[in-house]
Amino acid sequence: MEFFESIRNGQLGEVKSMVENDPNLLRERDSKGFTPLILASYSDQYEITEYLLEQGADVNGRDAAGNTALMGVCFKGNANIAELLLAHDADVNVQNAQRATALIYAATFGQYEISQMLLEKGADKSITDNKGHTAEFHARVQGMDDLANQLKS
Question: What is the pTM assigned to this prediction?
Fold first, then answer.
């Protein structure tokens, strides 16, 4: 769909024009089940992420696997977008189909700065994924001992 290509390619003007013509685009899904906000944040498109949030995109909307935009940012490591999502009340403790949280992903992918932001916003260190592992466990597996020590429950 042209709308999602415009998001992926960082074409803010095109995205604005399309949303102004059809505000329902904010609730559309691409072929992978991504919402516009998830795709924008995962694609490191800060300005488009900000615009979509201003237009009322659901900050806690989920893709087909139950991931949120915040979880996607924890894979990629864009701290500026994480901060933006958190400022718009992204839920730090939501769990996806694997029962993972944003904090678990931040720990798994070595996103120290984002992990700190999540903890400041009340991320629950005791939540376990579908294998029974906490964020601390994932940080230790990645050799991130400083982070793992902060994540001790």
Answer: 0.94
